[in-house]
Design brief:
Number of strands: 9
Radius of gyration: 16 Å
Order of helices and strands: EHEEHEHEHEEEEHHH
Shape: globular
Number of helices: 7
Strand content: 15-25%
Structural class: alpha/beta
Largest sheet: 9 strands, mixed
């Protein structure tokens, strides 16, 4: 089987639980970090699937690495190579499909609830549960692309995730594991600390993230198992 191409956009935002899941399935991961000068493939003919990770930059920033990621995402859409996007990755997917990425109604940092919308796409990706908590860290969010189906929502971010054929764009981070959570929750970035004061309901402290993880992290791992299996099933069928 061909390897999975994983695009990393910044230091400290590696594949984490996604890498664990791929290894457990015996799937080879081809990790590329274009911003560090690693070349990206000309096409996706040598890869079974594409995953795009997050990053602190805006999807709208004029960065060559982001435009290269969009080029590969577009190729995935054109050729049927399944694409999955985590936060910034989902925003880049939305841009490729012609949707805008704008400032989110409210910033979301920490474990936030999402209401899962009824329909076969939601059930295929996330199962029967109608409410889940996911790890978030974003100030911007995507609009629903034309031809895509919204599968999750909340008041802070109306489109939490969308399905587009065999592809899934998410505004949240199902790839977070304990190590990544520990690094993120230790942030002393001034904008993060200020946001805790201005938006306490949707921007959580590091202590709260770590406390909430005791309740939500393992449940998110089980959802990630399902989501990644659905994504890989489409790759295997291709």
């Amino acid at each position: 089987m061909k390897p999975v191409l994983v695009l990393q956009n910044m230091k400290g935002d590696g594949p984490a639980y996604l890498a664990h899941w791929l290894a457990a399935q015996g799937i080879v991961m081809d990790l590329r970090f274009a911003a560090e000068g690693q070349p990206l493939p000309a096409d996706l003919s040598g890869h079974a699937a594409l995953a795009v990770l997050g990053g602190e930059m805006s999807a709208n920033d004029p960065l060559p690495a982001l435009r290269e990621a969009e080029r590969l995402i577009a190729l995935g859409f054109e050729t049927g190579v399944p694409v999955i996007g985590h936060c910034l990755g989902g925003q880049l997917m939305a841009r490729v499909l012609g949707a805008r990425v704008l400032r989110s109604p409210l910033p979301e940092i920490g474990w936030q609830p999402a209401r899962m919308l009824p329909g076969p796409e939601r059930e295929a990706w996330f199962g029967q549960g109608d409410r889940h908590h996911f790890m978030h860290w974003h100030n911007e969010a995507f609009e629903l692309p034309r031809g895509a189906v919204s599968v999750a929502t909340n008041e802070a971010c109306p489109v939490q995730a969308f399905a587009y054929g065999p592809h899934l764009g998410m505004q949240f981070h199902i790839e977070v594991d304990a190590d990544k959570l520990a690094r993120w929750s230790a942030s002393r970035d001034p904008s993060f600390l200020q946001a805790q004061q201005t938006h306490p309901a949707t921007v959580h402290s590091g202590d709260r993230m770590r406390s909430d993880a005791q309740q939500f992290l393992q449940a998110q791992h089980r959802l990630a198992d399902r989501v990644y299996a659905r994504w890989w099933e489409a790759a295997s069928a291709g």
